[in-house]
UniProtKB/TrEMBL annotation:
ATP binds at G232, V233, A234, G235, S236, G237, K238, T239. Residues 211-602 form the UvrD-like helicase ATP-binding domain. InterPro entries: DNA_helicase_UvrD/REP, HelD_bacillota, P-loop_NTPase, UvrD-like_ATP-bd, UvrD-like_helicase_C. It comes from Virgibacillus pantothenticus. Keywords: ATP-binding, Helicase, Hydrolase, Nucleotide-binding. NCBIfam families: HelD_BACSU (NF041464). The keyword Disulfide bond does not apply. One of its GO terms (biological process) is recombinational repair. This is UvrD-like helicase ATP-binding domain-containing protein. The keyword Ubl conjugation does not apply. One of its GO terms (molecular function) is 3'-5' DNA helicase activity.
Length: 766
């Protein structure tokens, strides 16, 4: 019997003991909670009994206010305690089934040996003296992730603690029973990781705390740099590390950090729902989560309908050969660059002297303040004052002018007609107000009503003025595309790009490539508050952000610590350039971490896909065995559908639960769905799909990004379909597979397969 087996009875007894301790704690908390709940109900019922309400004198009012405040505070205090007890109960409940996953025996220099058990939360003994379980994020727990047996150290706020690890043990505990335990000499033993990765893919991402790898732990616990940039190959655990990092930060700064202080940009709503469970599973609330699309849409306002990145992608995929497509492609590349940001900055500098377009103030279809008058006032102000500060001065001036006009309007004839049209309620309201204002003196009822009518009509205009609606931002932005001939490094097709952009703006449409530039420009013109509430910003799939977009983000969050995670091999939106946020040559306060090991796929899948990875990075497989990818050459094109169906059914019979037919575009997905519908039970995933389900999914690669499936089938991998330019798309599609990959061709396969050694895949001819 091995050492591990010898300890089994001891370890199971310990688990049982912990189970008992937890039950006792639960009982105590339940008793406290029930008292508190009773208190809260009672307090709500008798809230007013203990409040002395007296409104006779100003002093009495103040006293009454204080008394209500005191009572409310008491209620809030009790509710908060109740909330934190409920949270504690939830944590205990999770620990009851699976109290811990690891143990290390650590002898600190000069101290006695201590057994440290590591789980998803800390647990103290009943005397609150000793830790029965340490939270995986506690400083001492980093020993488990970072070291094998032997000398080891960890950091605390008081300095480094060093010593010796003499045992490292892993557990799989379910429902309070130890299912397996392994002693390991390596950092984190392969067995547990093998078991985690060997399972079927899940429709929601799982936390990886039990098997975090050393290099991932560096990302999770990084605290030094203001900007942490992680380049990691497909399936290396970037998203997993990002989420565990957020959980770590929430724990490390639990006194200072609220969920609103952390923001996560994820690639699309489907992906957001895919990762939504991870933080709650770790006992943390979800943080602010959005996509860059929604973020920008909020900034641009309602003037435009903004094209989504997917529609842009679809346009590019289906219009590549057309003249419009070529022009647009050049436009996208230019508008993604820092050179374009400079063009905007130069244009904004010119606007200090002239050029901002204004809209007239209109009342009852009449211009009451012309746009020329507004422009004259704007440019009469000191030109050293920023544009947005001048906007505020203009707004104040307009409101004053409006007050004078409003006064004049009150006695005009049209008001009488409006009074007659007032409904009973409005009439009564105005009358009541009049009575109150008059307080005993003679009431000029008509005058009061006139004022009420006019004031109501002016209220909307005033509100719009306060929102700077008098500035014609779209028109001012469009002008940028008219006079740039003097700019250096303009793309050759600039005039056509400009014409395309102006046409879109005039139709109230913003192409995705114009969305961030417009939002940036609008912020320069009208003012955009730097967001100080976000202390940590995590950007997943960062390679899909253009240099322009990232520069904009940095201006909006000047004091925020950022973590960027991505893979240059998967940059499907932007042609990868030196300006890509992952490659930016930032010197100050930047730390870079590279992940080269791919955990998602089997060894055989990595040995195949790494031959056509677009970059030159090293890609190491995790040693998990599986089948070689399958290349199915269908000789007769009309048999393709039947072969495809057989392939999918075969995979299904093998027990795979998520099988994705990954296509290049949504157009291809829709076509395939039409063909297969009724023949097999399949689901079309498009931009409107917000949750991810098991089954046979038909999905375009740009929506499958970041997600994984048990098996991936590429329905058409011919060289006509995946040309040289589609390397990133093809690579991204193939790397979504965890266990199996099947590639179909009818004719010549794509060059990427042809250049891959034949011994890395199995070829079948049908
Ligand atoms: N340390 C780990 N322990 C267990 N599973 C892991 C670990 N690291 C990664 N994985 C698993 O590997 C898979 C890929 O992880 P993840 O999606 O985080 O990678 P990624 O780098 O974001 O991938 P991609 O860039 O291809 O979208 C997931 O199933 C994840 O649970």
């Amino acid at each position: 019997m091995t050492q591990m087996h010898q300890d089994f009875p001891y370890e199971q007894r310990r688990v049982d003991h912990i189970h008992e301790e937890i039950k006792q704690k639960e009982l105590k908390i339940a008793a406290k909670t029930s008292h508190l709940k009773q208190d809260v109900i009672e307090l709500r019922k008798t809230f007013w009994d203990d409040v002395t309400v007296n409104l006779d004198e100003p002093d009495d009012v103040i006293e009454t206010e204080a008394s209500i405040k005191q009572q409310a505070e008491l209620l809030t205090q009790k509710e908060t305690i109740h909330g934190s007890l409920a949270k504690e109960l939830r944590t205990l409940n999770r620990l009851k089934d699976n109290p811990y996953f690891g143990r290390i025996d650590f002898t600190e220099d000069g101290e006695e040996k201590e057994s440290i058990y590591i789980g998803i939360a800390s647990l103290m003994d009943s005397a609150e003296d000793n830790f029965l379980i340490y939270d995986w994020r506690a400083p001492i727990s980093s020993l488990y992730y970072d070291y094998a047996l032997g000398s080891a150290s960890y950091q605390t706020l008081d300095g480094d603690v060093s010593g010796e690890i003499s045992l490292k043990r892993q557990f799989i505990i379910r429902n309070g029973v130890i299912k397996a335990m392994f002693d390991t000499g390596l950092t984190i033993g392969d067995q547990l990781l093998q078991e985690a990765l060997g399972n079927n893919a899940s429709t929601t991402m799982k936390s990886i705390v039990a098997t975090i790898q050393k290099e991932q732990n560096k990302i999770i616990r990084n605290e030094k740099s203001k900007l942490l940039v992680v380049q990691g190959v497909a399936g290396s655990g970037k998203t997993s590390a990002a989420l565990q990092r957020i959980a770590y930060l929430m724990y490390r700064y639990r006194k200072q950090l609220n969920p609103e202080n952390v923001m996560l940009f994820s690639p699309n709503p489907l992906f957001s729902s895919y990762i939504r469970n991870v933080l709650p599973e770790l006992g943390e609330e979800n943080v602010r989560q959005t996509t860059f699309y929604y973020f920008v849409e909020e900034k641009t306002g309602e003037e435009f309908s903004i094209e989504s990145p997917f529609t842009q992608m679809e346009y590019m995929l289906t219009n590549k050969g057309t003249t419009d497509g070529q022009i647009r492609m050049q436009g996208i590349a230019y508008k993604s660059s820092l050179a374009f940001k400079e063009v905007i900055d130069n244009y904004v500098a010119c606007l200090y002297i002239s050029g901002v377009c204004f809209k007239p103030v209109v009342f009852r279809n009449q211009v009451i303040i012309s746009n020329e008058a507004i422009a004259n006032y704007f440019y009469s102000l000191d030109s050293s004052v920023s544009l947005f500060n001048r906007m505020e001065l203009v707004a104040n001036w307009l409101l004053k002018e409006l007050a004078l006009i409003q006064k004049r309007e009150v006695s005009k004839d049209w008001v009488e007609e409006k009074i007659e049209l007032l409904d009973k309620e409005a009439y009564a309201k105005a009358y009541y107000k009049a009575q109150k204002q008059a307080a005993g003196s003679v009431v000029d009822e008509e005058m009061i009503l006139r004022k009420a009518v006019v004031s109501k009509m002016f209220a909307r205009i005033k509100k719009r003025i306060k929102q700077y609606a008098f500035v014609d931002v779209p028109k001012t932005f469009a002008q940028l595309f008219k006079h740039q001939e003097q700019q250096k490094d303009l793309p050759t097709e600039w005039n056509d790009i400009a014409a395309q952009t102006i046409k879109n703006i005039q139709s109230n449409i913003l192409g995705w490539e114009d969305a961030a530039p417009y939002a940036y420009f609008k912020g320069k013109l009208l003012g955009d508050m730097a967001d100080r509430s976000v202390r940590y910003l995590v950007i997943d799939e960062a390679q899909d952000f253009s240099a322009f977009q990232f520069a904009y983000i940095k201006e909006l969050f000047p004091h925020t610590r950022m973590t960027l995670l991505g893979d240059v091999n998967q940059a499907i939106y932007n042609p990868i350039s030196k300006q890509n946020p992952l490659l930016l040559d930032e010197k100050n306060d930047v730390e870079r971490i590279t992940l080269t090991k791919s955990y998602r796929p089997t060894k055989q899948l990595v040995q195949f896909t790494r031959h056509f990875a677009p970059g030159k990075d090293v890609i190491e497989p995790f040693e998990r065995e599986g089948n070689k990818p399958k290349l199915v050459d269908v000789k007769e094109e009309n048999q393709l559908v039947e072969v495809l169906i057989n392939e999918v059914q075969e995979l299904f019979q093998k027990g795979y639960e998520t099988i994705a037919l990954v296509t290049k575009s949504i157009q291809e997905s829709k076509q395939l769905y039409k063909t297969l519908k009724g023949k097999i039970d399949c689901i079309l995933v498009d931009e409107e799909t917000y949750t991810f389900t098991k089954g046979i999914l038909i999905i375009p690669v740009y929506l499958a990004k970041g997600i994984e499936f048990d098996a991936v089938v590429i329905p058409d991998a011919t060289n006509k379909h995946y040309t040289k330019e589609d390397q990133i798309l093809f690579y991204t599609a193939c790397t979504r597979a965890m266990h199996e990959l099947s590639i179909m061709v009818t004719g010549e396969p794509t060059a990427f397969i042809k250049e891959t050694p034949k011994n890395t895949y199995q070829m079948t001819e049908i």
